[in-house]
Design brief:
The protein is mostly helical and 488 residues long. 68% of the residues lie in helices and 2% in strands. The protein has helices spanning 40-43, 53-70, 73-86, 91-103, 107-122, 128-148, 152-165, 179-187, 197-224, 227-237, 243-255, 260-276, 282-294, 296-302, 306-319, 325-333, 338-350, 353-356, 362-379, 382-392, 397-412, 416-431, 437-449, 451-457, 461-474, and strands spanning 14-17, 20-23. β1 (14-17) and β2 (20-23) form a beta hairpin. α9 packs antiparallel against α10 (227-237). It starts with 13 loop residues before the first strand and ends in a 14-residue tail after the last helix.
């Protein structure tokens, strides 16, 4: 995706910066595959086909209720581990449910949750990255939670300090607390937060000063466009732990510029420069985005177009590889920003298919190739299908084989005409090296292994499959020596 600069021209791999050039070919934040939020492959994880979010939440809630009755940590850990073995990408959701349960319980109940989280971490089922995502979800929604549970803000802070004391999370997570949540906790007095009142006061004071200084720096930047000056001021402040607030503030300030498009491009250029110079990290950008999404409804009070402008900004950040698609997917799974946030995230991903399709989860991949194949049967457009395959590249052997099998399977469920279309498509993909000979053979292997299920829907499936083999061998894309797998 090439978006427009403020002067109207598309960005290339090099962006002019002052008298020099900024190298956009160096490693971008989105290409760094791990962060405090976790590895990208974990962030892209989704529920198995037989599970729904509601089912997972119900199972976790049931396990938590049993735990509060029995108070046997080891038994609860075993049950939670079993749930996470089936749904490995949802440890953060489990953490959210556990801590939210503690918000309405007494001190003993809160300690029980801390014991459970500690037990899950020691068992290897709940890592620090999952808990970072857990707390970020709670940080982003604490005001909504407090409507039904007035003591929630203080208890949330107590749980955070408890997790730090148990070494479940690192104390630097304190620097990611929203300022209004800290102020709410501090307003309750030292007796309410005996563990960390002093520490919280220090963090709140540092954050307030950082926000003041960076707001002034950004105001100057929108007048001077001097990225070097901003970089120097950030370096002089030496408070990298709060730079997510700088990211959010820069984006929000771009919305209120006389020309929001020029403002957006100016901020994107600033982010590119700072990230290339290692002044801005992947974590800074990610935390900045979660805070932006969580405040969309408030921002729209002053800027009615805030959601639309955020969609544009995220689209450009994905295209510039400042944020990764798996991270945005995890934001969606955690429902950061509520209903408004989901609309923004979905729209941004729809506008960046060349990035989003490379990171499809298993269920989404199956749905995508099914749609591609059916559209091909309707249009016979091999060029368009090939383009779609390239959007999905690089395909693993497993996914490539599934694509090959699915083309034949769906054709066999229809008619001889679709079977001819399918054969022509596979021959074209193979000859144009969009799929390898090995992947093609694996697809045929997969088709025959699934033959018992296939013939339930297509009684003459075996004969049709043999026709595919013969014709593919005649076309020279399937080895003459290929044979039906022994375990088929």
């Amino acid at each position: 995706l090439k978006h427009q600069t403020s002067s109207g021209g598309p960005r290339g791999p090099w962006v002019q910066q002052g008298c020099g050039f900024l190298d956009m070919s160096s490693e971008r934040p989105a290409r760094v595959r791990t962060s405090k939020f976790g590895k990208d492959e974990e962030l892209a994880g989704e529920l198995p086909p037989t599970w729904t979010l509601q089912k997972f939440q119900t199972e976790v809630t049931s396990a938590l209720n049993e735990y509060f009755l029995a108070k046997i940590v080891d038994e609860a850990v075993v049950r939670m581990r079993a749930l996470l073995a089936e749904c490995p990408g949802f440890a953060d959701e489990l953490g959210v449910l556990a801590i939210r349960t503690a918000l309405d319980r007494d001190e003993a109940g809160q300690k029980a949750v801390l014991d459970l989280l500690s037990g899950l971490q020691k068992s290897g089922s709940l890592d620090s990255a999952a808990l970072v995502r857990t707390f970020e979800k709670l940080f982003c929604t604490w005001e909504d939670i407090a409507i039904d549970s007035p003591k929630a803000p203080v208890v949330l802070l107590i749980m955070l300090f408890g997790c730090i004391s148990c070494d479940v999370v690192h104390r630097d997570l304190l620097t990611k607390l929203p300022e209004n949540l800290m102020n709410t906790g501090l307003a309750k007095g030292k007796s309410t937060l005996p563990q960390g009142h002093e520490m919280l006061m220090d963090v709140a004071a540092e954050l307030k000063e950082f926000k003041f200084q960076t707001s002034a720096a950004l105001e100057d930047y929108f007048s001077t466009a001097s990225v070097e000056t901003v970089a120097r001021r950030l370096n002089e402040l030496g408070q990298r732990q709060y730079q997510h607030e700088f990211v959010k503030k820069a984006i929000v300030m771009s919305f209120s510029q006389q020309d929001p498009i020029a403002g957006r491009e100016s901020v994107l250029l600033l982010f590119q420069h700072l990230s290339t110079a290692s002044e801005l990290s992947k974590d800074d950008l990610q935390w900045g985005i979660t805070r932006l999404l969580s405040q969309l409804s408030d921002l729209e009070l002053d800027c009615p177009r805030a959601s639309d402008l955020t969609i544009e900004f995220l689209t450009c950040m994905v295209a510039d590889e400042l944020v990764s698609v798996p991270f945005l997917r995890r934001c969606r799974i955690l429902r950061i920003g509520g209903a408004g946030g989901l609309l923004v995230l979905d729209a941004a991903q729809r506008r960046t298919p060349e990035y989003s399709k490379k990171e499809l989860g298993t269920v989404q991949f199956k749905r995508e190739i099914g749609t591609m194949i059916l559209e091909y049967f309707n249009s016979s457009d091999q060029v368009e299908f090939t383009r779609c395959v390239r959007d999905l590249a690089p395909l693993s052997q497993e996914r490539g084989a599934e694509l090959v099998r699915k083309v034949m399977h769906l054709a066999m469920e229809r008619s001889g005409n679709e079977c001819e279309q399918a054969l022509k498509l596979l021959v074209s993909l193979s000859r144009n090296e969009e799929i390898s000979e090995e992947i093609l053979e694996l697809g045929f292997d997969d088709l025959y292994r699934r033959m018992p299920d296939l013939i339930l829907d297509v009684p003459d499936g075996d004969e049709m499959a043999k026709a595919f083999v013969v014709e593919a061998q005649k076309a020279g894309v399937l080895r003459d020596t290929w044979s039906i797998p022994e375990n088929a």
